[in-house]
Amino acid sequence: MEGFVVIGDMVATGLLALGITRGARGRALASVVPLLIWGMMAAALAAALSAIPTFGGFLLLALGAGFGATFGALIAFSARAERMPLYLTGLLVLYGVTGVFLSLSVMETSAIFWQSRMGSSNAERLASGAVALLSGSLVAGGGCAMFIRRLPAGPVAMLLRTTPLYRLLLAALILVLLGRLMASGGGLVLFSMVSCLSMVLGALVVLPAREADLWPFAILLTALSGLATAAIGFALASLLLIIAGGLASASMAQLLNSVCRESGRRPRDLLLGNPR
């Protein structure tokens, strides 16, 4: 089994490196995206194979959901061009939900079992799970709101208009509960509260946004997805997931900063809903 894991990691690394190289040279998107898709599929398959002798069926189910979401990208890129944003937003939501499930499996696993099998400390396990939980929940909530906004018959008006103060208070409450969750070493009730409130916060930020701001928000949600991937990779001691997630998060953060600078705003203004 370890041999297949190594082969999967090597294939994923080669495909991702080739896709990144083509993208850096300015090749057409149609020649870059398939390589990235197959590379992430190989990485997900390698992660699933490496987890088989270590974890139970719940984590494998979550990894299978992530693998299926990646495979769904092939369907999305074969769709019509006008439907492309809708498909990709739906896949973004699936990645967010997968991050939440993976963080649950990480945080609810016995600390003794985790240390004996993975070698990481309890603090590292809880910290990586908390980052994946927060990022995945924000992606799931914000992605659902963006999916609703992009539906042909969906609400296109600015709904749920909230002041920045309410968003900041909700974010502060989430951080307090997240700290309590880490201090207590886990807990399904606190986990559910943090996840639900983070999804609500993501929806409250994205749903009232202007039509022109949906593209920067899509970049932000993709960056959070990469952050969740890197956190899960840290928990699973997977260097490939850490590199892939960190690369995606850093590149999307730089792209978001460039888009906001071109529009004459800062990323903070985008999150708080301040107009140009």
Structural class determined from secondary elements: mainly alpha
User: Which residue ranges are poorly predicted, with pLDDT under 50 across at least 5 consecutive positions?
Assistant: none
Distance between the first and last residues' Cα: 54 Å
How large, in whole angstroms, is the Cα Rg? 19 Å
Q: Total helix count?
A: 11
Q: What is the arithmetic mean of pLDDT? A: 73
Shape: globular
Query: How many β strands by DSSP?
Result: 0
Task: Give an account of the 3D structure.
This protein is mainly alpha-helical and 276 residues long. The protein has a domain at 80-272. The protein contains eleven helices and no strands. The protein has helices spanning 2-24, 29-51, 57-76, 84-107, 111-118, 122-150, 164-183, 188-206, 214-235, 239-262, 267-272. Keywords: Membrane, NAD, Transmembrane, Transmembrane helix.
Main traits of this protein?
276 residues; mainly alpha; 79% helix; globular; transmembrane; NAD(P)(+) transhydrogenase (Re/Si-specific) subunit beta; transmembrane helix
